[in-house]
Design a protein that fits this description.
Layout lengths: L5 E2 L5 E4 H6 L1 H11 L3 E5 L2 E5 L26 H6 L13
């Protein structure tokens, strides 16, 4: 890292946009490895590059929905015994 980068008391590294441009891959790899965010100074503005954690599975993003339990069924056994319709072979299904 160059001399004019600094680190805050919380361990957040501060760099200028020019420093980021020169070392972007190294700085991004450091954020990923350390888990500490990087603050980028551009004029009077500060930007923060931080690691966002992702879920381990796409299924973790799904909301739980009780769509099969419309009749207040409490267990899978009740669902099996629930009758949804009567089949009559006279309806033209051979």
């Amino acid at each position: 890292m160059e001399k004019d980068s600094s680190t805050t008391a919380r361990g957040v590294e501060k760099v200028t946009l020019t420093q980021l441009r020169k070392n972007i891959y190294q700085l991004v790899d450091e954020v990923i490895a350390s888990g500490r965010p990087l603050t980028i100074k551009r004029g009077d503005n500060l930007l923060k590059l931080d690691l966002v954690t992702t879920s381990s599975s796409k299924l973790d993003n799904l909301k739980r929905r009780d769509t099969l339990c419309t009749n207040n069924l409490n267990s899978p056994d009740e669902l099996v015994t629930e009758t949804t319709h009567q089949w009559d072979k006279d309806h033209g299904f051979d």
